[in-house]
Task: structure prediction
Amino acid sequence: MVDHYVEADHRITCKFIALLVQEFEKQGTLVEKYDVWNCSANVSEEILFGYSSNEVGFGWTNGVFLELLAILKL
Result:
């Protein structure tokens, strides 16, 4: 059962990293919020809480990206 969770974790992690790379290649930056269902950073109209815009270079996203890369040893 544990292997199932490890496989799911790896799959989700890789998809999230791919989304961040895809958006970075399009925009040249990382932002705070992402729509993981639609694989896009175009979420400004959907923001209900916090900042009213999708902030560029937001620290937690950058940190999570680097940590995930380190975990996967990429």
